[in-house]
Write a structure and sequence with these properties.
There is one protein chain. Helices cover 43% and strands 13% of the residues. It contains 13 helices and eight strands. Strands 1, 2, 3, 4, 5, 6, 7 and 8 form an eight-stranded mixed β-sheet that branches. It starts with 18 loop residues before the first strand and ends in a 16-residue tail after the last helix. The relative contact order is 0.18. InterPro entries: Acyl_Trfase/lysoPLipase (IPR016035), NTE (IPR050301), PNPLA_dom (IPR002641). This is Patatin. It comes from Azospirillum thiophilum.
Amino acid sequence: MLELPAPEPLLALPPPRPTLALALQGGGAHGAFTWGVLDRLLEEDIRLVGVSGASAGAMNAVMLAQGWARGRIGGGPGGSCEGAREGARAELANFWERVSAAGRLGPIRPSLADRLLGRWNVDHAPGSHLVDWARRWITPYQTQSAGFHPLRGLLAELVEPELIRQAGLRLFVSATNVQTGALRLFDEEEVGVDQLLASACLPHLFRAVRIDGQDYWDGGYLANPPLSPLAEACPGADLLVVAINPLTCPVTPEDPAGIAARLNQITFNAALLQEMRSLSARGGGNGGPRLHLIDADEHLQDLGLYSKLMTDWSFLNWLRDAGREAAGHWVADNLPAVGKESSARSPALV
């Protein structure tokens, strides 16, 4: 009897790559924490479809998109996912290195002891007291020329709108209309230097940024970062929020600096928490996206308000490493949940 050869075993299909849209919160120099988060996430074989941000989160979002595009273009015909991820990592690293160099003469500096011991709360440093005094008595309209911003020159060198549009990612950057108090969203077709400066315009520090005859302040007041527009633009993708303003506070602050820092956190978290609760109520797969969260509560809880203005390179590297650590824990614990269920957990969401 003729014996037929055994059939070849069927090859198992590889599991689909996790599909994510990233929402990046703002927080000044603390945005280097998000740099670290992204640097670690981009080591994974993920499919990225969109990104949104406010303030420093917007700048991280744009640098990620530019690097994604640059890496795809350099990856040959059809682009390369690995090349896109590596391109994004390189673009983010270059951006934060340039930010540190541009701010090397800033008034808020850590002492040598702070650098050696890793103490980064500079609320009581001389430069912080100087900035606090100036905020009370001087407005930027008395000291700055129209169109001035310390990052304008740097962003003019780095931002490439055409490259952003080639990334193939949905992009949203938030700003607050001063006159109407309404949220303004700029997408990948609109984002440029002025839009990024508007999204990061703190009114006590900088003159409002004028775009199309309208004045804008920091986008973090109303969407920090935008969630619903990103979810609607990226149907089927899981939404990963990177929050850098601590959501919770273990001890009620009693000193002026601590009170100011906590009020700042509450103010810039309000819109985010409201949107996350709303999306959570809709439920992943039932009209709402599956939600995930990487927060900085464990790492940045002891930092004060004025460290957000400090661009010391050793501090930015410390923040980056903290972000990488937080993202590493999230990858180990929650990346397998992407595409299946939400994993966002925080007492602030209850």
